[in-house]
Amino acid sequence: MTTAALQTVLTVPERFRGPEGVANGGWIAGTMAEALSDNRSAVEVTLHAPTPLDTELRLEHVANTATLSHGDRLLVEAIPVAEDLNAPEFVPFTEAARAEAGFAGRRGHAFPECFACGLREPGDGLRVFPGPVEGTDLVAAGWRVPFTVADEDGVPRSVVGSVLDCVTGWAHFQPGESALLGRLAVQVHRRVYPGGAYSVVARATGREGRKLFGESAIYEVDGTLVAAARATWIAPR
């Protein structure tokens, strides 16, 4: 007995780019998480290859797995995770916004066009600029959610994934440094609302060879946890 696959076509608009010419990894992870789970369960998304922009891709859902492919090439795979993700501790919004002054990307950014953390125009990109929080091992930013990223149901998980993604990289990066996202586990507890103000927090949790590990979270102004993520990045050789 075989399980029939549910297939849809996904095209990533150029707006949601990360490195030049390819999709933001967190946007893809959030999209896959939404395809696989409509509740608060965590979803782990592995990026096997860069996802091209403005290209028809095959999103396939079989049993507990979702995959994204371009022709015969597997790009992304998502599976459910039976655990709650750890979240770095809350940083108040004013303190998180103050930390942005230390954002390393202002002094050197490998991907200045990135949808989440790039130096794009307000309302086009998310402009999440995490910097060190004094006296802690955290980086943080104050996220003011633009109305331009919302749909009729609010802010989609693709956008939430983008925010949770890049901030874990900046927990490691010095000016000009970069890596590519290899895996992101995402867990969304509450909705994000356009026009809202949120604290975005991350910490580096280790390094193993070329692999960089981190965890991140989004909090409401009262400290309520909105979403959390666990990331693995692959640094260049």
Automatic annotation (TrEMBL):
It comes from Nonomuraea indica. GO terms for molecular function: hydrolase activity. SUPFAM superfamilies: Thioesterase/thiol ester dehydrase-isomerase. InterPro entries: HotDog_dom_sf. This is PaaI family thioesterase. Keywords: Hydrolase. Gene3D superfamilies: Hotdog Thioesterase. Its EC number is 3.1.2.-. The lineage of its organism: Bacteria, Bacillati, Actinomycetota, Actinomycetes, Streptosporangiales.
